[in-house]
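hey can u check if this looks right to u? its 106 residues, i copy pasted from the old doc so theres a chance i mangled smth
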Amino acid sequence: MDDLPGQRSVLFLKEGNLWVALWLETNIAAQEQNIKAAWRALKATVEGQLALDAKRGRSPFEGKRRAPEWYWQAYEHAKPLPLDFLDEEGLGRDLTVHPRQYAQAA
């Protein structure tokens, strides 16, 4: 994801026993058992989408729409996450990834 142009607002949501990582600008999501695994799964999903788009001769993320407004509102109220956990995954601090964790009320 680090070589893609544009903003990358990533919302992490806890749903039951799983974490969901949602890239709001494209509405692409992945889920896993923990937040770091969800981040890795999101990156793999994005890479798969890029490969599929290239194979079909489309621009990256052609036809993808932003996530529904509720997720954007959740993002605005979410707690910003430090980029340290992204750095552990081999990413640099100069990325335009803005991760936030949304804690739903119990």
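The helical segments are 35-55, 69-77, 84-87.
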